[in-house]
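Example for tutorial group B:
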């Protein structure tokens, strides 16, 4: 229960990290620096998905688990990269987490086992919620 609550707090918090000072030149005199918000939650989710596939392969020898984990983990990582570059570009992440929430939710409903299907369904639903909130909070156009 505690990991799910912790993951929920992380997903719905507004975490962003500024890479450098806004405008101007960096301290070493190189080109102007820009602010870029990194989607740490998206990268963490991608890591969770990919590592779940690897664990499934190591424990059960499941090649489909490995392939699906690496495919969906890669797509989630690409989506996190896109969000890091443009916070309004959530479509790849939303499609990936939506598909995983449906697939793993169906598996959890059938097996009633929390690991791994329930964990992945819950994490994917939290990502869908986070990304849906991001769509609703689009910034207003500046004059």
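The residue assignment follows.
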């Amino acid at each position: 229960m505690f990991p799910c609550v912790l993951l929920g707090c992380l997903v719905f918090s507004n975490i962003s990290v500024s890479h450098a000072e806004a405008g101007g030149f960096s301290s070493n005199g190189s080109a102007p620096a820009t602010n870029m918000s990194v989607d740490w939650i998206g990268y963490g989710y991608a890591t969770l998905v990919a590592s779940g596939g690897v664990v499934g392969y190591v424990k059960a020898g499941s090649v489909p688990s490995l392939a699906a984990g690496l495919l969906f983990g890669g797509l989630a990582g690409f989506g996190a990269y896109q969000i890091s570059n443009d916070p309004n570009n959530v479509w790849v992440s939303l499609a990936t987490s939506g598909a995983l929430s449906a697939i793993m939710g169906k598996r959890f409903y059938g097996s009633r086992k929390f690991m791994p299907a329930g964990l992945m369904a819950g994490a994917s639903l939290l990502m869908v919620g986070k990304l849906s909130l991001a769509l609703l909070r689009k910034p207003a156009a500046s004059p």
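Confidence is low (pLDDT under 50) at residues 1-26. Compare this with the pattern of hydrophobic and polar residues in the output above.
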